[in-house]
Amino acid sequence: MNVQIVEVGPRDGLQNESVIVPAEAKIELIKKLIDAGLVRIEASSFVNPRWIPQLADAEEVLQGILPASKKDVRISALVPNVRGLERARLCGVSEVALFMSASESHNRKNINKSITETFPVLAEAAKEALALGMRVRGYVSTVFGCPYEGAVPVDNTRRVTHALVEMGVSEVSLGDTIGVATPKQVHEVFQELVKDVTTERLAGHFHDTRGTGLANVAAALAEGIRIFDSSIGGLGGCPYAPGAAGNISTEDLVYMLHGMGYETGVDLNRLTEAGAYIQEQLGRELTSKVLKANLAKQKQEEHT
Predict the structure, then answer these.
(1) Active-site residue, 238 included
(2) According to the lineage, what is the superkingdom (predicted)?
(3) What is the DSSP string of the chain?
(4) Architecture of the domain spanning 4-302
(5) pLDDT in tens, 139-192
(6) Annotated catalytic residue, options 181, 203, 227, 238
(7) Measured CA distances, 86 to 54, 66, 82 (Å)
(8) pLDDT of 242
(9) Which of the four pLDDT bands, split at 50, 70 and 90, describes residue 78?
(10) Each residue of 132-153: pLDDT tens digit?
């Protein structure tokens, strides 16, 4: 049984770091992730650099990695609109991701538009990207809870998911943006959505803010989901819960999946090397439990 992992650390992880990692270090990280066997990597974002200064070097990073990437590796970037898409096109990107929220308040805070106002903006970008022969992915934030509204009705997510599918996105990633989801809720949401959208077109994007990230992956697996986003080392905190963990760690996810009998194509030892590299670049210990355990084991072996 195969599970696809979409590595979002270089984008979703690093955009939440206070330290701005140099472009050459980001390129080296992505190369290490590719060497570890990851074939889907979200490398950066073409959102206005004033919003996310940590990713202001998107062009340099993409131009540095795309020529060197292997044929079977899909390097993608986040774009907010047609302007962002044009920047991505000029870099040679062949896959882009669009994003919006399931909750009205978060969408306004994040995109400065209502959900209804956001649809035509993304539809225009999707149409242009598809015309250029690009793959298009969609993200839906705050599926399991909103920092401003609390619980989010599943019908909100259904409405946004359907709109993205109508735009032609190949896959919709459902996000637990603030890390409040529990397995019961994950079962319920995916059971509803798979009635209208096939499991092959849905992905899970879980955060470990409250320690339920991997349990939620297991719940989604039970509903037939086989695509999950994760971040090397657990990069990226939760902007709504200072000091809390953010994205689930790729190392932890791979360890669990392999232990459950799933195949990912990822070499955990090489993945550890990638985690150790970016941890050193940031100058702080990352939250991945498997990374910590593997590095401790290596250190012990060096002294015996």
Answers:
(1) yes
(2) Bacteria
(3) -B-EEEE-IIIIIGGG-SS---HHHHHHHHHHHHHTT--EEEEEE-S-TTT-GGGTTHHHHHHHHGGGS-TT-EEEEE-SSHHHHHHHHHHT--EEEEEEESSHHHHHHHHSS-HHHHHHHHHHHHHHHHHTT-EEEEEEE-SS-BTTTBS--HHHHHHHHHHHHHHT-SEEEEE-TTS---HHHHHHHHHHHTTTS-GGGEEEE-B-TTS-HHHHHHHHHHTT--EEEEBGGG--EETTEEEEE-BPBHHHHHHHHHHTT-B----HHHHHHHHHHHHHHHTS--S-HHHHHHHHHHHHHHT-
(4) Alpha-Beta Barrel (3.20)
(5) 999 999 999 999 999 999 999 999 999 999 999 999 999 999 999 999 999 999
(6) 238
(7) 20, 16, 6
(8) 65
(9) very high
(10) 999 999 999 999 999 999 999 9
Residue with tokens 């990352």: 286
Residue 125 in tokens: 């970008």
201 token code pair:
């077109």
